[in-house]
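To close the section, here is one more complete example, presented without commentary so you can practise reading it yourself. The ligand is adenosine-5'-diphosphate.
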Amino acid sequence: MDMEKFDNNKNGDIVLKLADAIIANTGLLSEIDGAVADGDHGINMNKGFSICKERLQGMAFSFSDGLLTLGTILLTEIGGSMGPLYGSLFRGMAKPAKGMEFIDIKLFDAMLSVALEKVESIGNAHVGDKTMMDTLVPAVSAFHEATEQGLSFSVALGRMSSAAKNGMDSTKDMVAKIGRAARLGERSRGVLDAGAVSCWIILSTFSEEIAKRL
Ligand code: ADP
Ligand code: MG
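Output:
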């Protein structure tokens, strides 16, 4: 069987697809954030991803360099809690892939695991706190398990995406324990977490765009 992989140098535009997906959901993300917090999540995310799109459009760049640029912009140029969190997520993802010609299931697994480590070390949030981690942690585990089981890259991406969706949905019944929404206590129950939703948008876009290119 052919090992599924994609060309790192030719697929930088996946990062532009991520930007489009976030920009298209700006209103939705702010509305969700507004239900329990300050309603700026869409605006914060839109700002960072728009700057990135402007900077990269029309340029030739690899997938890993695109991720590094995106991460650096988020880390240094946007406010809110999400700048440093998503900034380190994308910079972490870029690291193992830097200078690599192809990205296969093992390398993507390593990229996700570095990304998760970085976000964990900065945010210190856990599953059940009603944050982006409720989407990210199960998604990264599902991809890792699929890798360990010897499944194909495309199947592993599908598993990642479903786990991300379930994780995002699980935040609806949670009480926020971290971030602005935590101030609401019990009243934060009943709505999704904005960061969990943006994280699902990001992971499902990765899944779709990468699967197309394998
Ligand atoms: P702010 O909280 O500064 O208004 P945003 O609205 O952009 O920033 O982001 C809010 C989201 O950040 C929340 O929905 C939650 O998912 C996420 N979040 C907040 N604190 C943390 C943390 N310590 N670790 C992981 N995610 C967090
Ligand atoms: Mg906010």
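Once you have examined the tokens, check your reading against these statements. The pocket of magnesium ion (ligand 2) is lined by residues 33, 37-38, 40-41, 80, 180 (CB under 6 Å). The longest helix spans residues 194-213.
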